[in-house]
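Hi R.,

As promised, here are both runs. First protein below:
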Amino acid sequence: MIRVTILAIALAVTSVTAQAALISWAASPDVPDADDAFQYSQPLVALLNGQDIYPGLWWDDVAGKRYFRLDIQGTPSGGSDYAEIYGIYIDAIPGGSDGPTDALDYIPDELTGIDYILDMHYSPTLGWFEHFHTWTGVTWTVATPDLTQRSNSDKQLEWGQDLADFAVAGGWTFWGATHSAGGAGNPDVTHDLTEAGAVPEPGTVALFGLGLAAVACIRRRRVTGS
């Protein structure tokens, strides 16, 4: 009886502390960054740093929502081992806001034409808080993301947002970054920035699939005719 009770307690504790991902992610990231080529925050000096992205960036569309995932090499903590902003930066339509001129200082200076931002802010004193920003062509609007989750000791960051909230003209491009906005005379700092992920427009994907099907059909005819 005692063993059963202990087992039940253990299972209850496990069910509380364990966190499943928001969706079932692919085995490998959609935007690889395996060589850490874009890491700025001393990747060779500070191993498992809370500012560095590792090793890439995921995205997926599932059941009417667009999901993103960002993995950090180390758990953000006090001192210098954290970034103020952990974000997904999306260029979806012509125009957008540029990092060097962005009034929010939320965009890394290396990026331009950003239309949407999904972010998680970290402060050693305030903890975590999240935003979904939309560029109106003149200014930014801000809302709370539909879904967010942090797991793996705050090293796996996830967002989920309604597809209807994204005005996408054809394909779109996105980046993941860790960034500190500066302020009070301090410069903006980009700690890490992934390579760009380019998502083709649905029609392009469909045409590509038809092309593959046509090639397969031609090959079958050649095989059966020989």
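And here is the second one, sequence first, then its structure tokens:
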Amino acid sequence: MTDSAGFTVRRVLVALDASTRDSGGIDPAALLAARLGAELAGLFIEDVNVSRLARLPAARHVQPGTGRLIHVDESTFRRELDSLVERLRARLASASDTAGVRWSYQIERSPVRAALLRAAEEADLLVIEVATLALERGLPREAERAAHACPRSLFLVQRGAPLDAITLVYGLTPARARTLEAARRLSRAGTPRLRVLIHGRTADELRAAEADLRAQIDVSEPWLSMIPVELTTLEQLARALQGLDAGTLVIGADDSLLCGSGPRRLFEAAPGNVLLVR
């Protein structure tokens, strides 16, 4: 049985913080909002824990361009943070106007995880750039915890990866119809390319999944390609994705390949962006 609920997105939320550089996922979030017919909400999270550290006499930060540790006082920290907040507001306004979507901007002083979970309750799709919300490699820890607990769909942005070249991971999951709809809506604008990686644990399950897909979509369309493959683990999915365009991977949160894996492992398995459909 499939989930009859469609993939409806009215509000896209992009999360930003003091580690944000360049657009921080704003530009792809605006494009997503335009393609999905949604409004765009920007949330700048001022992590209260970082703000407390800035008040300490021994506070230091890494100087961009030189890598040197330099002293930072609270007034300098506040001035630079306020400047970043306004630059990101202007970037959000510009990207939204270009994409033709309504937008809003909010600042919240709170721990990252708590702020994300509260904001996500009022959104349908949460957008996080992996270089944002932390200074560590990969998806930041607090954002990962929030994303894992968040009941909303999640879009993980790999800086520089295009939204096009959509790859849908399709199996016999309860929410496969909604996941298929999400992939089709993303592929309708721009260059309409949709690659479907059909998977099953056995040859019989693989054939059943392919037959199920054919019943839902016209597989003869020239913009559609199908790749049947037997898969049972996320690691096997990562190998199957090697060599494919680093575009956007669409997968349902209920897909058996995830087996409870967090967003970090899923992102590391994908060559580009990831849309986790819930």
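A quick note on the second one: The longest strand covers residues 39-46. Let me know what you think.

Best,
J.
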